[in-house]
Design a protein that fits this description.
Layout (H helix, E strand, L loop, with lengths): L18 H12 L3 H5 L3 H7 L17 E9 L6 E10 L2 E6 L1 H10 L5 E4 L4 E4 L1 E7 L3 H9 L2 E6 L6 H5 L2 H4 L6 E3 L32 H13 L5 E4 L18 H10 L5 E5 L2 H10 L3 E4 L5 H10 L2 E3 L2 H8 L4 H23 L10 E2 L6 H11 L3 H7 L2 H6 L17 E4 L13 E6 L2 E5 L2
Parallel strand pairs: 1-4, 1-5, 6-7, 6-13, 7-8, 9-10, 10-11, 11-12
Antiparallel strand pairs: 1-2, 2-3, 5-14, 14-15, 15-16
Helix pairs in contact: 8-9, 9-10, 10-11, 12-13, 14-15
Length: about 450
């Protein structure tokens, strides 16, 4: 779990095209210097212009064919169960998934070149999604993947590692989860994260930190220039530090609205605990509330109307209650039942609850643990599975790509030993993880 400050993110330039080239091109069209686009002094830019990024001479990997045969397949969207199912993966996508009859033609097309994995007596699901993780190293990303999350949303990274991880799914399939990157945390104190990009230097010595709407917009734009998919900000302090009160306000509605506006349509995820903080963030237009312990009923109704997602990160709050620090343990024990009630109320009032662990570094809670905790809080089992599949895909803008095993979806699969519709702990331990068409874990 995290409960710490973390940060980072980037844009998706076309292969071989570098950010500075894109900016330089756009700047030339607009009659500006690259430096003025980046917000850096023009004189400095004259001496610091980078050469164009090199274009790599090779092509991304093309994963081969894989058959996953004989398991019971669950479709999280419909709840439909297919016994003795066959999943046909080829070139990184699902070529077919269904009964032996339904998949016969697709199986014939990969005959002679497909690897086959028998999973009789086990359950087959789409790769799971963890919508709140902090990965700053390859080992972190691998740990998250091996625990069953084949797609993640970053809750910020310290030096844009999440952005750099993103293309690895194409160049080194099976090594890391699919990434929706957030870049650096839009938060008052940058600390060492000021070193993540030269454009952050103007924010290094601000009295009181990054708080004005113009500075918040600037920091958000730096993230956008680095290619982030989403933006992470906050309404309240951390819960994981005993000296901080997570119900104080850090950013109000106007400040968060400046971030939402500068994010230009990218979803903003907002760390928030207090009712005032959550309400301001929802009214500012954030896409999801992270933690959200003290959300009130009227704000829940507002979230339902606006389609704001709720990521309770139950695993992190339960982790707080198990802290060796007595202040944090007491805080956790107070928060857990309040959060469980919030989850029940949100679900009952039509807010979409999604699964995020707030895992940090290699200290990873399997996403299946969060699914089990959502069930324990009161979600029906199928809805808890959806929180880590179809609902999470919807939040990440990946509907039609992840969260289901149907033709054309990404070749991400997990296999578990027990029935997820009967066993609350079914997804906690995965025996097989296939990511981007490649076996990332096999303990069958
Ligand atoms: Zn976090």
């Amino acid at each position: 779990m995290c409960l710490h400050d973390h940060d980072a993110a980037v844009v998706h330039p076309a292969p071989g095209v570098v950010r500075r080239n894109v900016l330089a091109g756009a700047a030339a069209l607009a009659g500006l210097s690259t430096a003025s686009v980046l917000g850096a002094p023009a004189a400095e830019a004259a001496s610091g212009d980078a050469p164009p990024a090199p274009r790599y001479h090779g092509r991304p990997a093309r994963p081969g064919a894989l058959l996953i045969v004989g398991g019971t397949m669950l479709d999280p969207l419909t709840g439909h169960v297919t016994p003795d199912a066959v999943v046909v993966l080829d070139e990184g996508v699902v070529a077919a998934a269904g009964t032996r009859d339904e998949t016969r033609a697709a199986v014939a097309r990969v005959a002679g070149r497909a690897q086959t994995i028998e999973v009789h007596g086990r359950w087959v699901l789409p790769g799971l999604v963890d919508v709140h993780v902090h990965v700053n190293a390859l080992a972190d990303a691998r740990a998250v993947l091996r625990a069953g999350a084949t797609t993640v949303r970053s809750g910020s990274s310290s030096f844009y590692q999440d952005v750099a991880l993103r293309p690895l799914v194409d160049w080194a399939p099976g090594s890391v989860p699919r990434m929706r990157a957030a870049g650096v945390f839009v938060s008052p104190q940058l600390g060492d994260t000021v070193l993540a990009d030269p454009a952050l230097a103007p924010l290094a010595a601000l009295a009181g930190g990054v708080r004005s709407t113009s500075d918040l917009a600037y920091l958000t734009r730096v993230n956008l220039s680095r290619g982030v998919d989403v933006v992470k900000t906050r309404a309240n302090p951390r819960a994981g530090l005993p000296e901080q009160d997570p119900t104080e306000l850090v950013y109000d509605r106007e400040q968060i609205a400046a971030v939402v506006s500068a994010a230009r349509g990218r979803g903003v995820l907002c760390h928030a605990y207090s009712e005032a903080g959550i309400d301001g963030a929802v009214r500012a237009g954030v896409r999801s509330i992270e933690h959200g312990v003290f959300v009130g009923d009227s704000t829940i109704d507002l979230m339902a109307r606006r389609g704001t997602f709720f990521t309770p990160t139950t695993a992190a709050i339960v982790g707080l209650s198990e802290s060796p620090n007595p202040v944090l343990a007491a805080r956790g024990r107070e928060y857990v039942p309040v959060l469980q009630a919030a989850i029940r109320e949100a679900h009952a009032r039509g807010v979409t609850v999604v699964a995020g662990t707030d895992s940090f570094g290699t200290d990873v809670d399997p996403i299946g643990v969060e699914v089990r905790l959502l069930i324990e809080a009161g979600l029906p089992r199928l809805d808890a599975v959806r929180a880590a599949t179809t609902h999470a895909a919807s939040l990440l803008g990946l509907t039609g790509q992840v969260g289901r095993l149907s033709r054309g979806h990404r070749a991400d699969v997990v296999v578990v030993d027990t029935d997820p519709l009967q066993d609350d702990r079914a997804l906690e331990r995965v025996s097989l993880v296939v990511a981007q068409g490649v076996v990332a874990r096999n303990e069958l």
